[in-house]
Amino acid sequence: xxxxxxxxxxxxxxxxxxxxxxxxxxxxxxxxxxxxxxxxxxxxxxxxxxxxxxxxxxxxxxxxxxxxxxxxxxxxxxxxxxxxxxxxxxxxxxxxxxxxxxxxxxxxxxxxxxxxxxxxxxxxxxxxxxxxxxxxxxxxxxxxxxxxxxxxxxxxxxxxxxxxxxxxxxxxxxxxxxxxxxxxxxxxxxxxxxxxxxxxxxxxxxxxxxxxxxxxxxxxxxxxxxxxxxxxxxxxxxxxxxxxxxxxxxxxxxxxxxxxxxxxxxxxxxxxxxxxxxxxxxxxxxxxxxxxxxxxxxxxxxxxxxxxxxxxxxxxxxxxxxxxxxxxxxxxxxxxxxxxxxxxxxxxxxxxxxxxxxxxxxxxxxxxxxxxxxxxxxxxxxxxxxxxxxxxxxxxxxxxxxx
Length: 403
Fold this sequence. Notes:
This protein is of the alpha+beta class. 30% of the residues lie in helices and 29% in strands. It has helices at 34-48, 53-58, 157-161, 170-183, 192-195, 212-217, 221-235, 281-295, 316-330, 341-347, 377-381, 386-391, 394-402, and strands at 2-8, 15-19, 23-27, 80-89, 92-102, 107-116, 119-124, 133-138, 147-152, 186-188, 199-200, 242-251, 257-265, 271-275, 301-304, 333-337, 355-360, 366-370. An eight-stranded antiparallel beta sheet has the order 2-1-4-5-6-7-8-9. The chain is globular, with a radius of gyration of 23 Å.
């Protein structure tokens, strides 16, 4: 599992660390750097999937660019960024680091390495910045620099390594697992209007959750029923009305499309069946989150921005409990961002160690600070709940005093 993320000259960050727990909550005002931190995870996921570095940033007709594009991916005044992540696998910590030099026409790797605790599994040495290849050395278990390859600076060395003939065979297994962890990061941004139409059957949920019905309908009958029951269980208390059942149905001559349905009850007024076109934005977003938690592969990281957008504050506890329950059940770590004081109040003091504050320094740089690391926190907690302290600016005020 991914344990931490370090950002050096990435967008608005000079040098900051995000620690990742089973449920990590990132808070902060607008433009504090929350989205910038999550963009780094998107970038890692893309290059671990084999996209060229430039394409991973700039995007193309099928991939949206990293927010801000190539012009804003490096901190102002710099032309290189470094992203470093620690991944735990089989009881060992592996540190993967990639440094990229950027200009308007290209983005090339200048340094990349993978460490097993303090031992180098591979590392690069820049020979000539004008060349497209970079010398890379893989550990062989004996003394010396290691097994040498000239590899392409356009694509992550980590991704290229899986196809190399390495003397130390166990390296391939480790590289493959780390690639799976990084490429498997799923960033969810459900867009209700995209979810209201019929969707084609699919085996992979899209980031906007537009094909939620198609994903469920493509499952075998037993698996589909199990997930529909879970959806009904978690959704029944979200709307004001009583939800009796959630399900999907295949439609069309060849049953290649699907629609999402629910059965509502209004007490003595009987039952009513509606499809996704008649569901509220909040209901659809909640459905997308639950489906994501139920269909994402186990041992993965899920990222959800503005997790409670469209959800009534009184339902915050239901949302948090669902994320904790399904995260533990499927061994999925979750990072969420929120501006909602009600959700933070529901999180309570037991979640303090898992809350990170994104904020700006006097120099305008973004920083990530653990909430529990704020010196004045005990005094602040004595005067109010976390959500209230956030909404009235006291958390940011305390951080400004400590700078």
